[in-house]
Amino acid sequence: MRLRMIRTHNSSIYLAIFNRGTGVATFVAAAWPEIVKSVVLIEGFGPFYRNASDVAKHFRLSCERRMKSNRVLYKDAANSPSNMFRGNRRHLNIGAAIETRMFSATLGPGNQYISRETAEALVKRAVILQKDGSVYFQHDSRLIWPTIQYNTQEQVEHLWANIKAPVCLIRANDGWPMEKDVIDNVMKQLRPLCHVELAGSHHLHADPETATGVISEIIQFLKVT
Prior knowledge:
225 residues, alpha/beta, four-stranded parallel β-sheet, three-stranded antiparallel β-sheet, 9 helices, 16% strand
């Protein structure tokens, strides 16, 4: 709907996307190059890619995960929020959920962390408050299940090649670790106008101590484009 409105009014868009959203941004920028003016990718380079030879394995893993979980998600006929998120962990209160979110960041690869301020903002927009003060995360667990079909490296490289807008890559020095050969390939295929590594962790654009640096880089990038 929004793409239709943009095309109808002959407008342009500027994309600034974080983490998994960079996959969607890459598809949009490659498919509609005439309306995308610039692209900022934060802590991500685009969609995940896998070896073509593993397509059957990924399909099976995805289907088996769904079959296993459907018994929990759809055990009742009514799919109200209380039923859909019943399998999610219950937290005694908002504070406990915030502590859990901060701890979960440290479980990621590398030396990741998240500020309390950012964790609080993420938690408050993502939980369902119960009458007794406890909370459940309303995340749809299906979003983190194995993907039924991945793109191959060749497909993702063709997406990068079709992006005509200038690109800025922003990474955190304590963010999600990327192997050198992956970064080198991104630089070769995507040819970003700028590539910066800033102090901070995975949510550097949201953490109060590092957000200003990210904003400054984006503003500078937009000035030269």
